[in-house]
Amino acid sequence: MASNVNPTVRRRRLGQELRRLRELKGMTAEEVAERLLVSQSKISRLENGRRSISQRDVRDLCGVYEVEDHRIVDSLMQMAKDSRQQGWWHSFGDIPYSVYIGLETDAASLRVYDPQVVPGLLQTRQYAEALIAGALPETAPADIDKRVQVRMRRQERISAAENPLRLWTVLDEAALRRVVGNKALMREQLEHLVEQSQLPHVTVQVIPFEMGSHPGLNGQYAILEFPDAADSSVVYIEGVTSDLYLEKANDVQKYSVMYEHLRAQALNVEQSRQFIADIAKEYAEYAR
To answer: What residues does the HTH cro/C1-type domain cover (predicted)?
Structure first.
């Protein structure tokens, strides 16, 4: 059963605290690894929240860092326990991007740039099915259906009555022109995109082809921000075999500045909405 405790966020916070304790002790990750007879990569994964952490790990690390305050140790042990609970997405089995889903579930705002496709949070079910089937041609129908179900569940953050996710999306025109499935399906998808863009917490902008080169030509990325100031923002870059998560302030700042340039070069909100609606009408004419 899913828990109201987000295990991904718990792991991040716990990892940040363990890194802080290590730095206060003046030790490197390599020195800690040598003391515990484990690999340095394990210490790094524990600190960046990408690996599940046990209460035994916390106990051993607190011993190395000579943490004498039992209240701190107990608190960290409880965080470790919470971090091993399962989020709602675990009920769907092995999801390759489960770390991202955990972050997105707890995020307050999300800024997305996508040059190729409509972002998952704004996709219709039919578009998602056709997109996943085309992008992963060797995937079994059951696995495609599972991915689609997860995507639809993620969209509940957009439709939530209380504290919905604040979503800002910048799309390249290519994402609107690429026919996923068929033209009738694309018309429905773009009409849905126009409808979603009218929600007060959803902003959609488009960069038309005529704009030429722009800062987003290097590819898709997302910036997640969280309600708790203790949780640093994260830049997420999706990969084929592995994903990249950037949390250093300098990296987040560079991508944030790049996103501001994208927003400035894109059509404004009203122009973007009309641009999308016009392309949807083109698909409707083709479908006749």
So the answer is: 18-73
Hey, is 214 helix, strand or coil? coil
Buried/exposed 220-248: b ≥16 CB within 10 Å, e otherwise: bbbbbbbeeeebebbbbeeeeeeeebbee
110 pairs with which residues across the strands? 167, 224
Residue labelled with tokens 């092995």: 94
Q: Across the strands, what pairs with 234?
A: 224
From residue 48, give the alpha-carbon distance in Å to each of 58, 72, 112, 148, 265.
14, 20, 22, 29, 34
pTM over 0.85: no
CB 188 within 8 A of CB 124: yes
CA distance linking residue 43 with residue 19, whole number of Å? 9
Give the long-range contacts of residues 30-34, CB within 8 A, separation 24 or more. 32/61, 32/64
Per-residue DSSP letter, 27:
-
Closest CA to 116 of 270, 271, 251, 238: 238
What pLDDT, in 10s, does the model give residues 1-15?
A: 334 456 677 787 788
User: Which phi and psi (to 5°) does residue 217 adopt?
Assistant: -70, -15
In the chain, pLDDT over 90 holds for what percent of residues?
46
**Longest CA–CA separation in the chain, Å:** 74
Query: What is the C-alpha separation between 126 and 143, in angstroms, rounded?
Result: 15
Two tokens, residue 219: 């590819």
d(CA 13, CA 83): 10
For residue 8, CA distances in Å to 85, 102, 112 come to 9, 5, 20
